[in-house]
Amino acid sequence: MAAQSVEEELQELAALVREAEALGIDPWPPDKPERPWSRWALGSFMVILMLSAVSKVLFRFVKI
């Protein structure tokens, strides 16, 4: 059933939150700690891709 007003929407949300908490589900879990290794991994992967692409372009013009 679609809510007709903001108040009805908030009441539906409150009912869902109460039901989730009654079932033992935390609707708003705490934030996860930041993992700096993922940023480093993605950055190094991008650097490798860029170097690979540039080296392919440069080797087209090199005659050995």
Describe the structure.
This protein is mostly helical and 64 residues long. It has helices at residues 6-22, 36-60. The longest helix is centred in the last third of the chain and has 25 residues, at 36-60.
Protein traits:
64 residues, mainly alpha, 2 helices
Mean pLDDT across every amino acid position: 89
> Which class do the helix and strand fractions yield?
mainly alpha
Could you name the ranges where pLDDT drops below 50 across 5 or more consecutive residues? none
Number of helices: 2
User: Main β-sheet, in a few words?
Assistant: none
SSE run: HH
Fraction of residues in H or I helices: 55-70%
Q: What would you report as the Rg, rounded to the nearest angstrom? A: 26 Å
Q: Strand content of the residues, in percent?
A: under 5%
Number of strands: 0
Distance between the termini: 73 Å
Shape: elongated
Fold topology:
Elements lengths: L5 H17 L13 H25 L4
Short description:
It contains two helices and no strands.
